[in-house]
Write a structure and sequence with these properties.
Blueprint: E1 5-13, E2 28-33, E3 36-45, E4 48-53, H1 58-73, E5 80-84, E6 89-93, E7 105-112, E8 116-119, E9 125-128, E10 148-152, E11 158-163, E12 168-171, H2 178-187, E13 193-197, E14 202-209, E15 216-224
Antiparallel strand pairs: 1-7, 2-3, 2-5, 3-4, 5-6, 6-7, 8-9, 10-11, 10-13, 11-12, 13-14, 14-15
């Protein structure tokens, strides 16, 4: 049984934390397949990339339609990218140049329960994105790699960089979480680190593997946030 639950909202303008890394693979998307709107993310193995479609249900259909409503509310057209943050809030960015001169975002709903995505590399088997059974810090991440980007400074402080054309504002969680910092450093021991926080509070990052000229970045599982030591839920 698919226990995914999606509750539509708005669309309402979002003034909370939002940021995404360039590139299609760093976000979720909505597209039309056979007359039906479907959500999907990308999974890559070596040089092969495939679409992982969300398992069909009333909630998945409602989610796709809500994303489209968000795109239209921002002056765009149906289809395109969106993100789900650590609290299950579904955030939709504008896809056209805004007349306001900024990049606006709306919240269109909240997702709860399993996020089931079909794995095309395993006979389209449905996989619960946020089920970390069998994973430990540093395990290969073999699912779509998306989330809101956060950072760990050289001084081991977790923060969010809110960047504009003229400035960069750092904001910090309620309190620093030493266990999360330790887990990130276990995977990325040195320097300034970017990591994703995704649906279910998952913490993901990439590591540089291989030797030049074949070095490449591969995703790894780090752990989960402690909501009591994280940023306040917004919206």
């Amino acid at each position: 049984m698919n226990n995914t639950r999606f509750t539509p909202l708005g669309p309402f303008l979002w003034s909370g934390r939002y940021k995404r890394v360039p590139g299609d693979a760093a976000a979720l998307h909505v597209t039309r397949i056979g007359g039906q709107w479907r959500s999907y993310g990308y999974r890559s193995i070596n040089d092969e990339t495939a679409q992982c479609f969300m398992a069909e249900s009333e909630s998945s259909e409602a989610l796709a339609l809500a994303v489209n409503a968000g795109k239209r509310a921002l002056g765009g057209r149906d289809g395109g990218s969106f993100l789900i943050n650590e609290f299950g809030q579904v955030l939709v960015p504008t896809q056209v140049e805004s007349s306001f001169g900024d990049d606006r975002v709306v919240i269109v709903g909240v997702l709860e329960g399993p996020l089931l995505l079909h794995d095309p590399f395993d006979n389209n088997k449905p996989v619960d994105f946020a089920d970390t059974t069998g994973l430990q810090t540093g395990s290969d991440w073999e699912r779509p790699y998306f989330g809101i980007p956060y950072n760990l400074s050289n001084d081991n402080e977790i923060h969010f960089r809110d960047e504009s054309n003229v400035s960069s504002l750092w904001t910090y969680p309620v309190t620093q979480d030493p266990k999360l910092v330790e887990a990130i450093r276990q995977v990325r021991p040195r320097k300034y680190v970017r990591f994703f926080v995704s649906y279910g509070g998952l913490v993901l990052t990439k590591v540089n593997v291989g030797r030049w000229p074949n070095k490449q970045w591969e995703p790894r599982y780090v752990g989960r946030i402690d909501v009591n030591k994280w940023f306040t839920k917004e919206g």
